[in-house]
Design goal:
It is built from 12 helices and 16 strands. With about 425 residues, it is an alpha/beta fold. The strands form 2 sheets. Strands 3-4-5-2-6-7-1-9-8 form a 9-stranded mixed beta sheet, with helices on one face. Helix 2 crosses helix 3. It is elongated and about 80 Å long.
Length: about 425
């Protein structure tokens, strides 16, 4: 009996076709609404005519959405349409079994720790639909489940998404623009990195393929008003969903911040007041910001920054003093973590800074109140002018502030 075939084609969507045949170990597709992203993740999970779910017993694919309702309304529903009469679908385990032994599993990672559900599993294809809905640790952990003993099967991990969501910052850094170096990744280009692991030479490749609604010819022909509906969205959503703008996205906590707040660096007059604010961290980021205010017009400036990881007080304190360059500061403020003491010396981080003539007051106020004050400072005055500016050299401040998004738990960013 001849094996049934999956009846599907790209219908002229060249970007989707490029995504499906991309040789990269890791690839991201999308950037705009209507590009056929979910379709790409699903079809990618079937493999190809030579090695795939229809003809390879060892083929195991895992397709993920953030929640089960999202999964049922998209990937599972479409899979039931495409594979009707071909596979045997288990509605309890959410797995589809194909005639020659291939398997496709559908899963979700709604809660922190759900990734460990797959701790003993192995898959040669893992696809994340709406990747920016996932935290980075979920994505990276699933790399450990990507493996096969069949030399004919190439392991791949795939993502598809629009800009925005909790994971916007890390996805952008991984595929669009590196947050540490500022390097922008050219779309459609294969980036390779070679690392020796335990004496073995390994080559990992990554690629971003920007799909647009205009590539989805079937959608445009059947529903031409979809473009107009995207156009009618508020500006932020329109920029993200219609134009695939990764620098503007929905859910930002500080949408008031814009290029108008960025100014050229200048020498801060020595008689202007200066304040220092620090968010202390060692294993996490340590951020120190330096502020001043023009006594004449009241404009507040963030004129410098320190942004480091795994650097103690002996390193950070001299950097602060070098930027201050002998100035007498009007105030220095830090978070509660400065009060944490060493277990052996019973000496707090705050006390360590005093050895470098830096005396921090501890901010005990509510986070939410502080965030509202920041938003007020970012707002324009009655004449439409900004009241706060940041120097261009504060590259991390300029990068991080727009990428802060609402957290589902109150009091968190």
């Amino acid at each position: 009996m001849e094996t049934q075939k999956i009846k599907w084609d790209c219908k002229g969507n060249e970007k989707l076709e490029e995504f499906l045949r991309c040789p990269a170990d890791e690839a991201l597709y999308g950037g705009q609404a209507g590009a056929g992203k979910s379709e790409g993740i699903l079809i990618g999970g079937t493999g190809d005519s030579e090695v795939g779910v229809m003809n390879t017993m060892d083929w195991k694919a895992l397709l993920l959405r953030k929640t089960m309702p999202e999964l049922e309304g998209t990937l599972i529903q479409r899979a039931k349409e495409l594979f009707y009469g071909i596979w045997r679908y288990d509605n309890v385990k959410h797995r589809g079994y194909f005639p020659n032994g291939g398997m496709m599993r559908f899963g979700h990672l709604e809660k922190d720790g759900d990734r460990y559900i797959y701790q003993s599993d192995e898959f040669n294809y893992i696809g994340f639909d709406e990747l920016t809905h996932f935290p980075e640790n979920d994505y990276m952990y699933l790399f450990s489940r990507l493996r096969t003993t069949n030399p004919l099967v190439k392991c791949k991990i795939r993502g598809a998404t629009n800009p925005g969501g909790r994971g916007h910052a890390w996805v952008k850094s991984r595929f669009i623009q590196d947050e540490k170096t500022g390097k922008k990744y050219e779309p459609m280009k294969l980036y390779e990195s070679i690392v020796r692991v335990c004496g073995r030479r390994t080559n990992w490749s990554r690629c971003f393929i920007p799909g647009t609604v205009f590539d989805n010819k079937v959608l445009i022909e059947n529903d031409p008003m979809y473009l107009r509906r995207l156009w009618e969205l508020p500006e932020v959503e329109r920029e993200a969903l219609l134009y695939g703008n990764w620098d503007v996205f929905s859910g930002r906590f500080f949408p008031e911040f814009s290029e108008e707040h960025v100014c050229e660096d200048f020498e801060v007059p020595y008689d202007w007041p200066v304040w220092v604010a620090m968010d202390w961290g060692y294993s996490t980021k340590c951020a120190v910001l330096f502020f001043t205010q023009d006594p004449e017009d009241g404009m507040v400036y963030c004129f410098n920054e320190i942004y480091v990881t795994e650097q103690g007080v002996p390193v950070v304190a001299p950097q602060i003093n070098a930027i201050l360059n002998g100035r007498v500061i009007s105030g220095a403020y830090g978070d509660r973590r400065l009060q944490v003491k060493d277990e052996d010396r019973n000496f707090s981080t705050r006390e360590k800074f005093t050895l470098h003539n830096l005396y921090f007051d501890i901010c005990l106020g509510e986070r939410v109140d502080g965030w509202h004050r920041v938003r007020e400072l970012l707002m324009k005055d009655s004449e439409g002018e900004v009241r706060f500016k940041v120097f261009k050299r504060c590259v991390n401040f300029i990068r991080v502030l727009p990428e802060m998004i609402y957290h589902p738990n109150p009091g968190k960013l």
